């Protein structure tokens, strides 16, 4: 890669921290003429301006690289392991490699450094710069390692411009500060680039490589200094154009840790920036006296400055030579004198008008100030005067930022995430950002702190004052966060709800258990907005308070509900703040009966974990007093009632057994008609379902599979909700506004309601979020699944709001089945996919219905998948064959910003029709121990002829090993091979009698048993519903020249054949689609005649692992050789591929499992599908 030295000179003058410049490989880039330095300039004498680690640093990770940054470009061949060395203090030389990258020399140790060991790094005198000057003397520094490696991933602390910014100056430079020092080798045009392509299309690329960016890249230069990467466009940005910037996971810190995920953000350029930067403060201050003679001089600017304009030509101290460094994160430039200043002398410092901001604007006039030195150097170590929180503080807010104020001005570059840390239980580091201003350092936790937790903060001796004095000792302090204050987590109706039924009760759910005596008509009130109070009775059940008006509310009227701070939890603590919300009634009462829309476990589930709670989700909010141990019961064998606790939160009722359930046992759950909604309507019929436990408890920790908005999303509507989808069903009582929080970056938590339904947690802000603001969402490890397992780690993500609310209505983008589709399977689930994320609370069996076109709703359950944005209606039984059904998505379905479907507040639903056929869908059959086998020869063995046979899997037989012929396996075992009959099994051959070097026959027996069980599970007796293919025309035994949808197909005459033309299996874009072919007799593939091999073609996502052939007699596959067979063949009798002497390879993407006879291969390749 060619280094552009003129660009290098302009970006990275001698004073810059850890820098590298590379040219972006994109259109418009070119090498400029000229050499370095420029005519008329005095070439700099080489010196080392900064190192990592710094001299005197301690507790350095053992897996770090060592670097030294020069003030001028050096001759590459002069920088080597001979001139840049690292030794233990004992004198042992550390082996490694040395690389010169721009101005940085990098020493990469071959092995990790030793723990708790002092090391001396040395740059030898005599090495030459490009200008021909030499380093005058050896440069040496010492640091000490700690006890561990650095495994903490770096993060992007902020960006300039911020994500979602509009009105960005078109002459800006894009800057990205990181949380720690990065490896400059990894900050380049492959890891940091700018494009006009939308962020959504960039995210769709997955790999985030420049070569895959649609529309190409913006020409420019990438540089890195301190902890900040820069992208300087070669030309001004286009007016009114939105740009997307990317930092991908190729960017690494000096310990080799990559970013956790690609960081993508967008901004829009409007006009040029013409505002001049100013000087915010200086140290020493103007006219200061008694200044220490060994001090550095620091200047803080009003905005981020252009790094190449802060040099010892633009930042000068009269009569003093020195070097200048600049920290873009703190906006502080520092002048470090080469030698101590003179005593009792007046000095003049100047920032010239050549210093410019990132847009090229200079300060309006030279900034000049004076100070007078004293008689001595400053040798007094700085101290920490105060901390917030104070040491041993208790009841600290989880949103608290941690600060420490020093006794004097500090060197900003020494205050970072390495020298200022916060750790939680077990010494686990808290992720956060460190800033410095004035004399105060601030640690801002990325996701807030946990409740009731002890934290330890530390500032190491790596921090130094402006005279270079380190603190004498590490400053440590601890504090304890407070108990989670009780809050109102959700209400029904929600704040701002409209069309509320006039006969509905009002409810509020708390984050903890309340003192029932404090929930009464004084603390929970309802009134006409701005008017009279509404009479009613207040009750409290579980964690929910309910206000039941004495009379129906007035139609089309705004009401305001209030819960005061008089409401207290069981420990006597009042809620954090009064909760007030308003809603508007509709024109009438609610007379619709609630329903149970889903249960977990579902009806018929097997292998249910024994430590799992049982839940039921309702179609609407229920009266919590009607959900108890009399209306929600669980019974075991013989009708014995299972002891347990019933709770109700949101729309979910939970039965938590007192003890684990028994293994391999059938249980019956029931919800009676005593369960009522908030309008007093009972469920129409009792809900009953059964499930069977497995043999073990659930110990799997839940995870978050998708969040919305996505991490680093921009332009987010200010009125939208924030959601997180879990990998499994969660315990609703653990999903509250203390475990699911949203706050402004570096700011306070925002108020909002938290609800949970169908694996999705939703945070609904009480008020619109601020425009163009970064928010951080966090879900703590206190959330648990139904078995009580907590998440392994907290989930934190951020997003940036746009400039306006989201008013775009959601639409239905696709359906399955399609509109007017025919031959829809009788048990097929009906699906609708939306254009955007939908509020899961608005998707239920009242808003998604399927009915006969002639009338009559079909019973079923409705679920919503946040990852695919798809709602699914699963029929309870089967549809009626050969009639037309109509599916309806109600217009009351809303997106996360509250926009109705189609944007129509009237009754305009989304409807489509389809016609059922005769097909029935099947689930994949579990092959269990038979799954690894590409072939099983029953009790008769397996024979190979030819030298082209390869079985990519195992083979086996319950017979003796002598009945395996013509094979060798991956373990080196040989079974009667000859020069003309030598097939390869890449796995293992299992038999009843173990051959030398093999294993006993238990696996062969287990495989045979599993294959037998699968054969029975595929039989018409256990899997009814198979149809005759002649209903589509043609002969009932002929599968060739057909395209079949997923389903169960039974041969009417007893046998199937694929002759004349291939068979096509169309999954209709469902990767889980299953085909089962049932035969009372034989299966024949190939023909007519031996000369015409036939194949199976998979279409639209069909997979070989989901195709099953249940053959009650024998199967013959392409006796003439050639062709491709697909699926798992399980035959009572033998299976034969090709015939002796054929050399054309037959391919089987599946398995050939014979239960009692042999399997014969002639030049056959078998590929066992992954399960």
In short:
Strands 64, 66, 67, 69, 70, 71, 72, 74, 77, 80, 82, 84 and 86 form a 13-stranded mixed beta sheet that branches. A seven-stranded parallel beta sheet has the order 68-65-85-83-81-78-75, with no helix packed on it.
- Fraction of residues in H or I helices: under 10%
Radius of gyration (CA) equals 36 Å
**Percent of residues in beta strands:** 35-45%
Can you tell me the residue ranges where pLDDT is under 50 for at least 5 consecutive residues?
1-42
Distance between the termini: 46 Å
Number of helices: 3
- Major beta-sheet overview: 13 strands, mixed
- What's the total count of β strands? 86
Q: What is the count of structural domains?
A: 8
By oligomeric state, this entry counts as single chain
Sum up the overall morphology in one term: globular
Mean pLDDT over all positions: 88
User: Structural class from helices and strands?
Assistant: mainly beta
Structure description:
- The chain is mainly β.
- It has 8 domains: 43-144, Immunoglobulin-like, CATH 2.60.40; 279-373, Immunoglobulin-like, CATH 2.60.40; 384-481, Immunoglobulin-like (Sandwich); 488-585, Sandwich (Immunoglobulin-like); 596-693, Immunoglobulin-like (Sandwich), CATH 2.60.40.1220; 704-801, Immunoglobulin-like (Sandwich); 812-916, Immunoglobulin-like (Sandwich), CATH 2.60.40; 925-1171, no CATH class.
- It is 2% helix and 37% strand.
- The strands form 19 sheets. Strands 64, 66, 67, 69, 70, 71, 72, 74, 77, 80, 82, 84 and 86 form a 13-stranded mixed β-sheet that branches. A 7-stranded parallel β-sheet has the order 68-65-85-83-81-78-75, with no helix packed on it. Strands 1-12-13-10 form a 4-stranded antiparallel β-sheet, covered by helices on one side.
- The protein starts with a helix and ends with a strand.
């Amino acid at each position: 890669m060619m280094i552009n030295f003129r660009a290098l000179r302009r970006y990275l003058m001698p004073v810059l921290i850890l820098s590298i410049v590379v040219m972006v490989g994109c259109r418009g880039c070119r090498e400029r003429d000229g050499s370095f330095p420029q005519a008329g300039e005095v070439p700099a004498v080489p010196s080392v301006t900064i190192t990592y680690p710094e001299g005197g640093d301690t507790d350095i990770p053992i897996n770090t690289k060592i670097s030294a940054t020069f003030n001028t470009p050096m001759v590459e061949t002069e920088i080597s392991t001979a001139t840049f060395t690292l030794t233990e203090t004992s004198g042992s030389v550390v082996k490694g490699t040395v690389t010169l990258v721009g101005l940085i020399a990098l020493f990469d140790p071959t092995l990790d450094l030793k723990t708790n060991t002092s090391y001396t790094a040395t740059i030898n005198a005599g090495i030459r710069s490009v200008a021909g000057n030499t380093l005058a003397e050896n440069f040496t520094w010492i640091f000490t390692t700690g006890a561990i490696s650095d495994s903490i991933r770096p993060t992007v602390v902020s960006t300039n411009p911020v994500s979602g910014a509009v009105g960005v100056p078109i002459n800006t430079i894009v800057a990205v500060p990181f949380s720690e020092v990065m490896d400059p080798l990894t900050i380049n045009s492959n890891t940091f680039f700018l494009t006009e392509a939308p962020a959504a299309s960039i995210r769709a690329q997955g790999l985030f490589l420049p070569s895959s960016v649609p529309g190409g890249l913006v020409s420019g230069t990438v540089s890195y200094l301190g902890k900040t990467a820069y992208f300087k466009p070669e030309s001004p940005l286009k007016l009114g154009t939105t740009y997307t910037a990317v930092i991908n996971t190729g960017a690494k810190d000096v310990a080799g840790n990559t970013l956790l995920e690609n960081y993508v953000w967008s901004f829009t350029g409007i006009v040029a920036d013409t505002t001049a930067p100013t000087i915010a403060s200086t140290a020493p201050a103007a006219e200061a006296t008694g200044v220490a003679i060994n001090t550095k001089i620091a200047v803080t600017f009003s905005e981020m400055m252009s790094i190449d304009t802060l040099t010892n030509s633009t930042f000068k101290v009269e009569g003093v030579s020195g070097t200048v460094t600049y920290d873009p994160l703190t906006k502080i430039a520092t002048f470090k004198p080469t030698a101590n200043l003179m005593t009792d002398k007046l000095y003049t410092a100047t920032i010239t008008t050549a210093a410019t901001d990132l847009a090229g604007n200079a300060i309006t006039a030279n900034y000049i100030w004076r100070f007078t030195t004293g008689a001595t150097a400053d040798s007094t170590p700085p101290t920490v005067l105060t901390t917030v929180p104070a040491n041993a503080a208790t009841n600290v807010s989880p949103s608290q930022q941690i600060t420490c104020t020093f006794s004097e001005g500090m060197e900003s570059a020494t205050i970072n995430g390495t020298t200022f840390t916060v750790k939680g239980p077990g010494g686990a580091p808290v992720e956060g950002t460190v800033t410095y201003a004035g004399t105060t350092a601030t640690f801002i936790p990325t996701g807030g702190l946990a409740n009731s937790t002890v934290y330890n903060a530390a500032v190491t001796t790596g921090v130094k004052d402006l005279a270079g004095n380190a603190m004498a000792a590490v400053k440590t302090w601890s504090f304890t966060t407070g108990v989670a204050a009780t809050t109102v987590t959700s209400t029904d109706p929600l704040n701002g709800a409209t069309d509320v039924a006039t006969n509905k009760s009002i409810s509020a759910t708390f984050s903890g258990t309340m003192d029932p005596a404090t929930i009464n008509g004084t603390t929970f009130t309802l009134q006409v907005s701005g008017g009279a109070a509404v009479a009613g009775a207040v009750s409290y059940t579980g964690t929910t308070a309910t206000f039941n008006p004495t009379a129906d509310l007035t139609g089309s009227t705004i009401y305001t509900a209030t819960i005061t701070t008089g409401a207290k939890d069981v420990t006597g603590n009042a809620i954090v703040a009064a909760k007030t919300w308003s809603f508007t009634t509709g024109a009438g009462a609610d007379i619709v009966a609630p329903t149970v829309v889903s249960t977990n476990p579902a009806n018929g589930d097997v292998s249910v974990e024994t430590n799992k709670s049982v839940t039921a989700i309702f179609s609407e909010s229920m009266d919590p007093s009607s959900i108890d141990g009399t209306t929600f019961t669980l019974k075991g064998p013989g009708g014995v009632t299972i002891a347990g606790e019933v709770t109700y939160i949101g729309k979910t009722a939970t039965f938590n057994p007192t003890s684990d359930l028994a293994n391999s046992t059938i249980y019956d759950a029931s919800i009676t008609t005593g369960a009522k909604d908030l309008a007093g309507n009972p469920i129409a019929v009792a809900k009953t379902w059964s499930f069977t436990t497995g043999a073990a408890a659930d110990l799997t920790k839940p995870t978050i599979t998708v969040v919305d908005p996505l991490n680093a999303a921009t332009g987010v509507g200010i009125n939208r909700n924030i959601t997180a989808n879990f990998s499994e069903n969660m315990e609703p009582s653990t999903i509250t506004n203390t475990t699911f929080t949203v706050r402004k970056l570096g700011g306070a938590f925002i108020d909002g309601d938290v609800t949970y339904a169908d694996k999705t947690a939703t945070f609904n802000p009480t008020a619109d979020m601020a425009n163009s603001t970064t928010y951080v969402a966090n879900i703590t490890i206190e959330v648990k699944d139904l078995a009580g397992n907590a998440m392994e780690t907290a989930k934190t993500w951020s997003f940036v709001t746009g400039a306006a609310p989201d008013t775009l209505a959601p639409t239905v983008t696709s359906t399955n089945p399609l509109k007017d589709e025919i031959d829809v399977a009788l048990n097929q689930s009906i699906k609708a996919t939306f254009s955007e994320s939908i509020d899961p609370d608005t998707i239920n069996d009242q808003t998604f219905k399927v009915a006969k076109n002639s009338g009559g709703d079909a019973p079923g359950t409705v679920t919503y998948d946040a990852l695919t944005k798809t709602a699914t209606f699963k029929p309870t039984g089967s549809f009626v064959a050969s009639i037309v059904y109509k599916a309806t998505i109600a217009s009351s379905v809303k997106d996360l910003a509250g926009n109705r479907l189609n944007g129509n507040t009237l009754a305009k639903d989304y409807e489509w029709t389809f016609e059922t056929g005769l097909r029935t869908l099947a689930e994949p059959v579990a092959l269990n121990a038979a799954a690894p086998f590409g072939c099983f020869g029953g009790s008769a063995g397996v024979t190979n002829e030819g030298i082209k046979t390869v079985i990519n899997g195992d083979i086996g037989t319950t017979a003796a090993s002598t009945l395996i012929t013509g094979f060798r396996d991956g373990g080196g075992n040989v079974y009667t091979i000859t020069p003309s009959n030598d097939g390869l099994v890449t796995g293992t051959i299992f038999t009843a009698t173990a051959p030398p070097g093999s294993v006993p026959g238990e696996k062969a027996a287990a495989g045979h048993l599993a294959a037998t069980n699968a054969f029975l599970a595929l039989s018409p007796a256990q899997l009814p519903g198979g149809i005759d293919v002649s209903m589509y025309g043609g002969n009932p035994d002929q599968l060739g020249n057909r395209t079949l949808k997923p389903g169960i197909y039974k041969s009417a005459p007893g046998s199937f054949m694929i002759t004349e033309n291939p068979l096509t299996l169309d999954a209709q874009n469902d990767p889980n689609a299953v085909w089962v072919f049932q035969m009372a007799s034989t299966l024949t593939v190939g023909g007519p005649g031996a000369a015409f091999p036939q194949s199976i073609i998979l279409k639209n996502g069909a997979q070989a692992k989901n195709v099953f052939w249940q053959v009650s007699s024998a199967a013959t596959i392409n006796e003439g050789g050639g062709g491709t067979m697909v699926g798992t063949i399980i035959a009572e009798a033998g299976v034969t591929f090709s015939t002796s002497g054929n050399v054309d390879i037959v391919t089987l993407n599946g398995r050939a499992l014979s239960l009692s006879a042999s399997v014969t291969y002639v030049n056959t390749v078998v590929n066992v599908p992954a399960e």
